[in-house]
Please model this.
Amino acid sequence: GIFHLLGNMLFLWVFGRRVEDACGPWRYLVYYLLAGTTASLITALAQPHGDIPGIGASGAIFGVVGAYFVLFPGGRIRTLWFISFIPTWPKIRAFWFVLYYLIIQIPPAVDTYMNNAQYGIGHWAHLGGFFACIFIPLFMRPESFARYMSDVPV
Model:
């Protein structure tokens, strides 16, 4: 729905601009497309009997989030929390934010695989895109990414 789309755009803005700064626009584009393709393949393998096609950019965006996770493990992001209905904007380590979001993808993904449950969200695409971030840089000259790790502000 619309909130999923808005969430994707927010994640792409928060995480994508830093990753693009680190690897450059062309390498970022290739990385994004490979993460999305990998996410689609993982979804197809995990849901061979699924009757709803996986269409969208969630897997590619979560691949970008995964790249941020690898490139900037000590980075901080500003988040919105409500304490007694009062909004606060603390900065937290991206590592913990991304790890939390990754973990909450696992139960519905397993449920989809085991019971063919339908959530309307590509949890396998999220997981596939994220884990693509571990392998794709190996084929895209990881030293190109590594040289920016200390140069790009977070």
